[in-house]
Amino acid sequence: MRYIRYAILGALGILLVSVCIANRTIVALKLLPDAVAEFVGMNPSISLPLFMVVLGGLGAGLVIGFIWEWIREHKHRRAVSNQNREVKKLSREVKKLKQQKHEGKDEVLALLDEAS
Question: Which sequence ranges form a coiled-coil region, renumbered to this chain (predicted)?
Answer without folding.
Answer: 73-114
